[in-house]
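**Protein of interest**
===
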Amino acid sequence: MDGLVGLHMRLAPVFWLAALAGAPLAAPQVIETGPGLGLEPQGARGEIVESIRVEGLDHTPEQSVISALGLELGEPYDRAKVDEGMHSLWRSFKIIVLNFSQVEREGGGIDVIVRVREQPVDYEPRFVGQEGISTAKILEWADLSERAELYLHEAGRVRHRLITAYRQHGYHFIEIDVITTGGDDDPEGGAPDVIFEIREGLKVRVSSVEVSGNDSLPDTGWGFWKGGLSDLSDRQTKGQGIFSWWGRVFVEEVLRADLVAMRQVYRDRGWLDAKVELLPLVFSDERDRVQVSIIVDEGPQYVVKSIAIQAVERFEDEQGNIVEQDAELFFPEAELLEKVEMKPGVPFEKARLRHDRRAMRDFYGKRGYIAFDGADETKGWQLLEPLIVTDFERKEVLVTYRIHQGRQRFIREIKIRGNHHTRDRVIRREIGVMEGDLADIVEIERSLRRITGTGFFVDRQNPEHPNPAYRFIETDDPDRVDLVYTVEEGRVVDLQLSGGVASDSGLVGIISLSMRNFDATDLPSSFWGTFGEVYRKEAFHGDGELLNIDLSPGSQVSSWRIRYRHPDIFGTHLNRWSLDNEFSQRDRIFRSHDEDRTRAVMTLGRRFFEQDVTVSVGPIYQTVDIHDLDESDDDLAGSKVPDTLEDSKGKSNFRGISFGVRRNLLNSRMSPTEGTLERWNNSIYGGFLGGDNDLIKSEVGYDRYWLMGPEEQEVRPGFFLGLAAGVATSTGQPGSVNYSERFFLGGSSTLRGFRFRGVGPNQGDYAIGGETMLRGTLEYRFPLLSAPLPGTSQRREVFRGLFFIDAGLLDPDAFEVDLDEYRASIGFGFGLVSPIPLTFNFGFPLREGDGDETEVFSFRLSLR
């Protein structure tokens, strides 16, 4: 009302003069006036606006203010639009409305008078004194990159932004003064002028970090073998080192976060009283280096005194509130306690809590007591917040797991969503539960991994592509739920035109067409529309078949291959048979000879035991031509190549049968990190099958992957163990196994540190090959670089390091093993995980034999 009083005071003299003169009193009627932002004009609603006047503008166009207010001449006055317009004035122009009044005219309509105040603005704020940081970067930090002007009231916030950014870049002693002239407070009425005087100081680096008192978690090791408190907390404040010669930039905010992380490490491992404190920082005389000292008071480690499991029933009361009461366990407590790691006498560690939550979820989930989002809190299985009682005197913890068991659920219906171009049966045959079965969460998640493992619903070129997922939906029957698997069609057609080089095969060119979700019966509507329909997944798509066409010319290896695989040739859905046909030609130039191999294979396969075991059998036809042997120039010196190679010279026909068993429990087909792969492959040639060679070749293999570290960490180090053994024996003349079918070691995929096929025993200048083979490898793999997955809180591994030890043995006779002939190597490597799997290895022989050829560096396009 202050503005109203002010206006009345201004009009009062006019009224008095008119009265004294005897004139009729016909003053304009003030409908409303009021100061400040957020006015709520009353009255005059619907009156026509005849004129608009804005007072108090210096640089903003009057029409812009009128437009922002939502006023138009000749249109009815709208209070709501004006009220919103006053807020819009502040957002757009930083203008405050001091008075807003409407004056009625005698003939109808109103005149609108708006008095405003513009905020003082500097159109070219200046930054002086900076040396280490460019003006463009300062404008970016100040959030002034997109605009030039600076309102004077924003100067304080800009100063704070700049100081924060400077300190995040190591300028710990940054000082900034804001000098403001002109504006409303300037008696001379000068234009606003803002100057930021910057005194950067020197960039501070950490010379050393000393942590003391961490006796239970000492910092040990070096490089990638580091361990202890600093490694567990992922401490980012670090001093001078091999990868940071001058020390890392000192950022106090990062240091404070490190202290919090170190305290959390202790608490997660049972040191509930642990204190991690920062001693006073010691800066150098030049104030460009700092010594950081951290002191730890660990205190005792708390242990578990007792562990119990309690059932809790949750239900809604009459007011709709969730209440709890004790209930009976559905399973014996002793049986549940066998599944947990939290036991009396062990340290009270959060990792055990996380493990036990997963273990009990799987135990109940396998029996149909499922937990899922969206379930009624009174029905779904839940592990509630554990009841933890801490005895601070005895340093003991009493733990009680509280479980809302819910009710046992069965699957009413299994639904597939998102498979717009893929047939339902392609997905359903990977699902190990049926409608009417218990909702077994373990098998449901195993089925999800199989669906993902098909590769039909992933796109490695697009990190934002969602992976397959599942969820439960409540039904009218409280004992039954619908299981919904959601997928999104991925990239399944790959056409590659590329080239490269490999240490074992030289220069290669690659022309490859791969269609992973192929459908031979889904023909395009027309010849001219073929490419467009294939691209849109409207043709040759959706039945889960595989078509590969490869052409690879090279300097040492040239090949072509056509492969077609049908996963369910008889359409039996679950108890299905697969058909795999492959035709290939491979011409290779070895140092000792040239080998041309033509091969045709047809394999019929059947899955067993929850689809994890595959048994396959089928005919093999191949022709091998060995020619251009490396002959000696000296007739007296004899042959440079082994007798086994000399005896195999020429063209040989192999006709036989293959038989194999494979058990795959890996978590990923392309880049596994957990699980096992077991395989047994056999080939029987000759005899009644015909051909030029009578032999049996058998090979067994075992691969295991396992991870180390906390389960909640997405990218973790781990181990890989690979073992293999093979034997090739002639069923005709003993010792006459063709050179092309013998076993060899050496190279990037078998025994690193040795040249490809460079492991003996040897005859002449080359290896004779073995009829018996043993080999093994153990790798420790650790992430070097990871990247966040867009749209999630998860991360994926991009680059890794590894250390390995390889060993192997070849014996020229079948079923014979001479342990004195073993070879071994040790080394390290680096692997690019994404987007292209590429591994670089550096191997160093620990044990080699006469005539062996060594090779330190090797690489291959594979991670396994």
About this structure: The domain at 410-486 is CATH 3.10.20.310 (Ubiquitin-like (UB roll)). The first helix runs from residue 2 to 20.
